[in-house]
Specification:
Layout lengths: L1 E6 L2 E11 L2 E6 L2 E9 L4 E6 L2 E9 L5 E5 L4 E7 L1 H9 L10 E3 L4 E6 L6 E2 L4 E7 L2 E6 L4 E6 L6 E2 L4 E5 L1
Length: 169
Amino acid sequence: MSVEIKLNNRYARVELLHQNNNLLKIKVDETVYDIDLMHTDDGTFSIIENNRSHDIELVPLDQPKKYLAYTLYKTFDVEIIDAETRYLLDRLGGHLDSDEKHISSPMPGKVVKVLVTEGQEVSKGQTVIILSAMKMESEYKSKVDGKVSKIHVTDGDTVEGNQVLIEIE
């Protein structure tokens, strides 16, 4: 699994090479690291690499896959750019903000769970459906406040890329 991570203005390609519980071998750009990664009870991440310990707190921002990362001395803007994010960036002309009133599948996949019903009021940012694609489950959220007007799929359905799944009025 490989993703691109943007830290402030730096882009890095991060690939998980091997995992055994919390022991990871990752490749960042062309450098391989053996790390011990733990998600602690207080919501921070503890990373031990080459006998050095780093604690990082990730605070989610308003947009999906965007965070503020706090370390002891620095703060970073973080954005996870995976296949879904790249697709949405291309589709929405370079930005993820959208007032679209429908949820579409960015790629072919399978509906894991529809979390809303027709007529239900939803809030911007509320998870409305979970899809499985490329061996990963992804949550899709409402982009607007409104009422679910039409649900085009049910649990277990196979969907095509760019297929409208849920409409919101």
